[in-house]
Design goal:
The protein is of the alpha+beta class. The protein contains eight helices and seven strands, in the order H-E-E-H-E-H-E-H-E-H-H-E-H-H-E. It has helices at residues 3-8, 31-45, 56-70, 86-107, 128-141, 145-156, 168-177, 185-193, and strands at 16-20, 23-27, 50-52, 73-78, 115-120, 161-164, 199-202.
């Protein structure tokens, strides 16, 4: 999603840490900072790049310091749990958040309850954006929390995500770095020679 959409609709993004070789960046979705970091390091160690999701304690702190004060209900939508531990981290953090939020909200002058729902989008690539856009639409339409939850859960099981891989050698190197041997050297060489671009498909946690 473009940054102006995220800002306009007050979508809060969980920061991540990006590591390329020995270089590390805390990515707060600052486009220029991220691009500068990538241009400086991706050519040399691009296939080794990895993202490190917020830990349980980092997610807990973010909620207790900000979100339980700013919002009454939060839907935390994550990348598919089959590809990242962020869903499990957020789910584990949610127990501590719901257990500890009351004094924080009361100190800020709120005596009403706080609710949190962690949702596995069961997808990745740009498909993650679909549930976020729908959540914004539902919130704007005045839908109830239950209606929003039911609709987002329905979407999570029915959205298909796609990505076209431009560089087969890079994809093979990234896959091998993650322990995936499904793309062999011959396949990469043949696909590159024939200019064949595979389509990666994400659906219900499977790619």
């Amino acid at each position: 999603l473009p940054q102006d959409f995220i800002a306009e609709h007050n979508i809060v993004l969980l920061p991540i840490t990006v590591r390329i070789g020995e270089a590390v960046l805390a990515d707060h979705r600052d486009e220029q900072a991220t691009l500068s970091f990538l241009h400086a390091h991706v050519a040399e160690h691009g296939a080794e790049a990895e993202t490190i999701p917020f830990s349980v304690n980092q997610i807990r702190d973010l909620f207790l310091q900000q979100l339980v004060i700013d919002y009454d209900h939060v839907f935390c939508m994550t990348i598919t749990k089959t590809r990242s531990p962020i869903h499990d981290n957020a789910l584990q953090a949610s127990f501590a958040i719901l257990n500890d939020y009351k004094p924080v909200r009361q100190a800020a002058g709120y005596n009403s309850p706080f609710a949190l729902r962690v949702l596995d989008t069961q997808n990745l690539f740009a498909a993650q954006a679909v549930t976020a856009v729908e959540a914004v639409r539902l919130r704007g339409s005045g839908a109830s929390v239950q209606q929003i939850r039911e609709r987002l859960e329905e979407l999570a099981g029915n959205v298909h995500g796609y990505m076209v891989t431009r560089d087969l050698y890079y994809m093979r190197a990234r896959a091998r770095h993650k322990g995936d041997r499904s793309v062999g050297l011959l396949s990469a060489a043949l696909g590159s020679a024939l200019d064949i671009k595979p389509v990666l498909h994400g659906y219900r946690g499977e790619t």
